[in-house]
# Entry
Amino acid sequence: MKKKYLLMGMLAAGMLLVAGCSKEKTCRCAVIGTPNVRIIKISKGECEQLRVLRYYNFLQQEQVDSLVCTDFEFDIDTVFNNN
# Structure
Protein backbone atom coordinates (compact mmCIF):
# COMPACT_ATOMS: atom_id res chain seq x y z
CA MET A 1 0.00 0.00 0.00
CA LYS A 2 2.85 2.38 0.84
CA LYS A 3 4.47 1.66 -2.52
CA LYS A 4 1.23 2.62 -4.28
CA TYR A 5 1.11 6.01 -2.49
CA LEU A 6 4.80 6.58 -3.16
CA LEU A 7 4.33 5.81 -6.86
CA MET A 8 1.29 8.12 -7.07
CA GLY A 9 3.26 10.90 -5.36
CA MET A 10 6.16 10.49 -7.77
CA LEU A 11 3.80 10.59 -10.76
CA ALA A 12 2.11 13.74 -9.44
CA ALA A 13 5.50 15.42 -8.90
CA GLY A 14 6.58 14.42 -12.41
CA MET A 15 3.43 15.89 -13.96
CA LEU A 16 3.94 19.15 -12.04
CA LEU A 17 7.52 19.31 -13.28
CA VAL A 18 6.44 18.81 -16.90
CA ALA A 19 3.66 21.41 -16.58
CA GLY A 20 6.06 23.90 -15.00
CA CYS A 21 8.64 23.51 -17.76
CA SER A 22 6.14 24.25 -20.54
CA LYS A 23 5.07 27.58 -19.04
CA GLU A 24 5.01 30.51 -21.47
CA LYS A 25 7.78 33.10 -20.96
CA THR A 26 7.66 36.81 -21.63
CA CYS A 27 10.89 38.08 -23.16
CA ARG A 28 11.89 41.73 -23.27
CA CYS A 29 14.05 42.43 -26.31
CA ALA A 30 15.97 45.58 -27.17
CA VAL A 31 16.25 46.27 -30.89
CA ILE A 32 19.91 46.93 -31.67
CA GLY A 33 20.54 50.45 -32.97
CA THR A 34 17.12 51.85 -31.96
CA PRO A 35 15.36 52.83 -28.72
CA ASN A 36 12.63 50.24 -29.45
CA VAL A 37 11.80 47.40 -27.08
CA ARG A 38 9.83 44.34 -28.21
CA ILE A 39 7.83 42.15 -25.84
CA ILE A 40 7.77 38.58 -27.18
CA LYS A 41 6.08 35.54 -25.61
CA ILE A 42 7.70 32.15 -26.19
CA SER A 43 6.45 28.69 -25.22
CA LYS A 44 9.84 27.00 -24.97
CA GLY A 45 13.51 27.85 -25.00
CA GLU A 46 15.37 30.73 -23.41
CA CYS A 47 14.97 34.44 -24.08
CA GLU A 48 18.72 34.83 -24.57
CA GLN A 49 18.46 32.57 -27.66
CA LEU A 50 16.33 35.14 -29.53
CA ARG A 51 18.59 37.06 -31.90
CA VAL A 52 16.41 38.04 -34.88
CA LEU A 53 12.75 39.01 -35.29
CA ARG A 54 11.21 38.74 -38.76
CA TYR A 55 7.81 40.28 -39.37
CA TYR A 56 5.77 42.01 -42.08
CA ASN A 57 4.73 45.66 -41.89
CA PHE A 58 1.38 47.01 -43.11
CA LEU A 59 2.73 47.19 -46.71
CA GLN A 60 3.56 43.46 -46.51
CA GLN A 61 7.28 44.12 -46.68
CA GLU A 62 9.48 41.85 -44.61
CA GLN A 63 11.23 43.59 -41.74
CA VAL A 64 14.13 42.17 -39.75
CA ASP A 65 15.21 43.40 -36.31
CA SER A 66 18.39 42.31 -34.53
CA LEU A 67 17.61 41.71 -30.86
CA VAL A 68 19.20 41.39 -27.46
CA CYS A 69 16.70 39.65 -25.16
CA THR A 70 16.26 38.88 -21.48
CA ASP A 71 13.54 37.47 -19.26
CA PHE A 72 14.31 39.95 -16.47
CA GLU A 73 11.56 42.45 -15.74
CA PHE A 74 12.20 46.09 -16.59
CA ASP A 75 11.37 48.88 -14.14
CA ILE A 76 8.45 49.91 -16.37
CA ASP A 77 6.87 46.47 -15.80
CA THR A 78 5.99 47.54 -12.26
CA VAL A 79 3.93 50.44 -13.68
CA PHE A 80 2.23 48.46 -16.46
CA ASN A 81 1.52 45.13 -14.76
CA ASN A 82 -1.04 43.10 -16.76
CA ASN A 83 -1.65 40.52 -14.01
